[in-house]
Amino acid sequence: MIRIEHLTKRYGTATVVDDVSLTVETGQIAALVGTSGSGKTTLLRMVNRLVEPTAGRVLIDDVDTATLSPHLLRRRIGYAIQGHGLFPHRSVAQNIATVPRLLGWPKSQIRERVDELLSMFQLDPAEFRDRRPHELSGGQQQRVGVARALAARPELLLMDEPFGALDPVIRAQAQADLRALQRRLGTTLIIVTHDMEEAVALGDRIAVMDQGRLLQYGPPEQILTRPATPFVQALIGSAERPFRLLSLSPVGDLVQPGQADGPAIAPDASLRDALAECLWTGRDRLPVTGGGVVTLAQLRQRAAGAGLAAPDEPAAAQVAP
Ligand SMILES: Nc1ncnc2c1ncn2[C@@H]1O[C@H](COP(=O)(O)OP(=O)(O)OP(=O)(O)O)[C@@H](O)[C@H]1O
């Protein structure tokens, strides 16, 4: 568990991170969103002490990170940034092996780990191990960057706009892969993004920042249905909100008894997909694979925010004064 307590960073008279407190449970993803210059990167970099806080502290599993040596701390924390930051003159394998080498892993174990990670990211080890970063596509470089961050099996992974440079299709795939991988490994993840869509797709919790302050921290449903301030509301984008809400839940959530004509939709498809299918095919109900139906009337209700579980724990509904 990561506990950020009253974290503050000042440069001269400018307070760029202003008394931010939030908790990320083990195995969860927290997405930091906000406008440019709102302090997201600075907040993230204070977690691995690339930036030293002016005040406040960060606890990882109840240990104050100020008591640890910064370089040892950073070996325990994966860090992936936009533009991947790969070493250009080192091979893919050497790049991925960076932290395991610093930790003194035996060569055979490093090699095994590199190949395992390449396979996990759908890069054939025999083909990619010895290439240099410039011999890879942007998406492949990005995957190697994330593989490098995961190499030493960090309990915590920090990502700063890791998919910013990818086109929308690859980006959606990269997000899905990251989510699946993170679930499998149980890694705790803090990701900075300026894209609310990405935050909703990835975050178990979303932190909205503006001018160094945390305006709201809560599950995506809460941010979307109960924005704490006009700024949060503007960031969500009112036109997109119904679709974002629908994208959070699978068809299986709304399935009810009944029958309908036409091709069926899978229970694990999103409600957003179901709405698109209804509109595209002119149907007001769809059969669901395995039985039952989902209706347009239900989808409309859900898009308006009805029937969602009440936003949980009051602490997560933290709102700045
Ligand atoms: N080393 C520094 N010295 C002085 N000011 C800094 C320094 N680093 C960052 N800042 C300022 O702190 C503020 C927050 O920057 P930060 O990079 O954390 O924002 P951000 O939300 O990540 O922005 P973006 O989305 O554009 O990357 C900005 O106004 C920036 O100019």
Automatic annotation (TrEMBL):
Keyword ATP-binding set for record: yes
Entry-linked SMART domains: AAA (SM00382)
InterPro entries according to UniProt: AAA+_ATPase (IPR003593), ABC_transporter-like_ATP-bd (IPR003439), ABC_transporter-like_CS (IPR017871), P-loop_NTPase (IPR027417)
UniProt keyword list: ATP-binding, Nucleotide-binding, Transport
GO molecular function: ATP binding; ATP hydrolysis activity
Pfam families: ABC_tran
GO terms under biological process: quaternary ammonium group transport
Sequence ranges assigned to domain ABC transporter in this UniProt record: 2-236
Family per record: Belongs to the ABC transporter superfamily.
Protein name, as recorded: Amino acid ABC transporter ATP-binding protein
Organism annotation: Paracoccus jeotgali
